[in-house]
C-alpha cells in the first residue's frame, strides 16, 4: 500500500505509476491547488472511454453518505477498478462523515474512494482513524512566505531546470504563495527554455514580464547598501507600473527581510549552520543578504524599521492617513535608510 501520509510529489508519482494504490484517500487542508491537481490525477486513473461507467463524482452535501457507500459497493463495468470522488466533504457534519468509517474499515477492493475536503481540515474522528488504518491521508498545508523558496526550488528541479539566486528571489517576490500561478509560470519557462536550461533574471523579464532591474530583490539590495538614489528610482518605477508592483508584495518582502535579519542578529550560534537552522535556510547563499544587512543596520535600527513597516501597513489601509500608497512607500524607504535605532 502507498505511504499513509505522502507528500504531494510522492502521491502524484504513485498515481502516475498506478502502483500500490490504496482503496481510500482523504484529501484535506487549506491549500486548494494541491487538492485540485490530485483530483485530476485520480480522474485520470480511468481511461476516457470508461468514464461514463467507472468514474463517479459525488457532492457530499447533495448526495448523502448512504448514496456514497452504495456507489462504492458497486463493481466496475468491464474494468479493473472504479473511482468514486466525493467533493465538498468539508460541508458535511462530522457525525455524518463518521458513517463512512464502516465502509472504510472494509472497503471494496475494486473501488478507489477519494474524499475531498478542499480548503478545510477533515472532520470525523472515526472516519480519520479508519482511513489511517486502511487508506491514505494527504494534508494540503497552506504555504507561508518563509517556506515558499524550497517549494519553488523543488519544482524547478522537477522540471529539470536550474535557477540562479536572483531569479529565484524574483519568482518568490512576484508570484509568492500563489501555487497555481507558480506552476503555470515555471511550466511555461520549461517549455520555452528546455531541459537543463538556467532560469536567469533576463529569462524571467523576457517571458514572465518582471523587470530584472526594478524589482523587490534589487530594492532590498539597494536598501542594504544604503543606496538611496537607486532605491527611490525603483520606487518610482513601481509607482508607474503598479499592476506588476503592488505595494503589498514590496512591503511583505521588506518585512520578511528585516524580521529575518532580527532573527539573524539574535542567533546565539554564530556559525553558518547555526544561522541556517535559525532562519530555516537550505543553502548558504541566502545568508549573504543578512550578513550584508547586519553590517548596515544594528539591532535597534532593525527593531525601529520593523515598527515602521507595521505602521505603513496600518496607514496604507487608510487608518490615520489619506496619502497615496506609493507616497507612503517612499516615506517608508526614507525612514528605513535614515533609521537611528529609536525604539518606543
From TrEMBL:
Transmembrane segments: none annotated. GO terms for biological process: DNA-templated DNA replication. It comes from Duncaniella muris. Its EC number is 2.7.7.7. GO terms for cellular component: DNA polymerase III complex. The gene is holA. This is DNA polymerase III subunit delta. GO terms for molecular function: DNA binding; DNA-directed DNA polymerase activity. Keywords: DNA replication, DNA-directed DNA polymerase, Nucleotidyltransferase, Transferase. Signal peptide: none annotated. It comes from the Bacteria. Belongs to the DNA polymerase HolA subunit family. Residues 25-139 form the DNA polymerase III delta N-terminal domain. It catalyses: DNA(n) + a 2'-deoxyribonucleoside 5'-triphosphate = DNA(n+1) + diphosphate. It holds the Pfam family DNA_pol3_delta.
Amino acid at each position: 500500500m502507498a505511504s499513509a501520509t505522502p507528500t504531494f510529489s510522492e502521491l502524484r508519482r504513485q498515481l502516475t505509476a498506478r502502483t500500490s494504490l490504496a482503496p481510500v484517500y482523504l484529501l484535506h487542508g487549506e491549500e486548494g491547488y494541491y487538492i485540485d491537481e490530485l483530483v485530476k490525477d485520480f480522474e485520470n486513473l480511468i481511461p476516457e472511454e470508461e468514464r461514463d461507467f467507472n468514474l463517479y463524482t459525488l457532492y457530499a452535501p447533495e448526495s448523502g453518505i448512504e448514496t456514497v457507500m452504495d456507489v462504492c459497493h458497486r463493481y466496475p463495468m468491464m474494468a479493473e477498478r472504479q473511482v468514486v470522488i466525493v467533493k465538498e466533504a468539508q460541508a458535511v457534519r462530522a457525525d455524518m462523515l463518521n458513517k463512512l468509517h464502516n465502509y472504510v474499515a472494509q472497503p471494496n477492493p475494486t473501488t478507489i474512494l477519494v474524499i475531498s475536503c478542499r480548503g478545510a481540515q477533515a472532520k470525523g474522528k472515526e472516519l480519520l482513524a479508519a482511513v489511517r488504518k486502511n487508506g491514505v491521508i494527504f494534508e494540503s498545508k497552506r504555504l507561508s512566505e518563509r517556506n515558499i523558496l524550497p517549494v519553488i526550488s523543488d519544482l524547478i528541479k522537477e522540471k529539470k531546470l536550474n535557477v540562479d539566486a536572483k531569479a529565484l528571489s524574483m519568482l518568490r517576490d512576484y508570484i509568492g504563495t500563489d501555487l497555481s500561478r507558480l506552476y503555470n509560470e515555471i511550466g511555461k519557462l520549461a517549455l520555452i527554455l528546455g531541459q537543463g536550461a538556467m532560469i536567469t533574471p533576463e529569462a524571467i523579464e523576457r517571458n514572465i514580464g518582471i523587470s530584472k532591474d526594478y524589482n523587490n530583490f534589487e530594492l532590498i539590495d539597494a536598501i542594504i547598501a544604503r543606496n538611496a538614489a537607486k532605491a527611490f528610482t525603483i520606487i518610482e518605477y513601481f509607482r508607474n507600473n503598479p499592476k506588476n508592483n503592488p505595494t503589498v508584495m514590496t512591503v511583505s518582502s521588506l518585512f520578511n527581510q528585516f524580521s529575518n535579519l532580527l532573527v539573524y542578529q539574535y542567533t546565539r550560534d554564530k556559525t553558518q549552520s547555526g544561522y541556517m537552522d535559525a532562519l530555516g535556510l537550505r543553502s548558504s547563499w541566502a545568508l549573504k543578504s543578512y550578513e550584508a544587512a547586519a553590517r548596515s543596520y544594528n539591532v535597534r535600527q532593525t527593531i525601529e524599521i520593523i515598527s515602521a513597516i507595521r505602521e505603513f501597513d496600518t496607514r496604507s489601509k487608510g487608518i490615520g492617513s489619506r496619502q497615496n500608497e506609493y507616497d507612503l512607500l517612499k516615506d517608508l524607504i526614507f525612514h528605513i535608510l535614515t533609521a537611528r535605532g529609536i525604539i518606543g
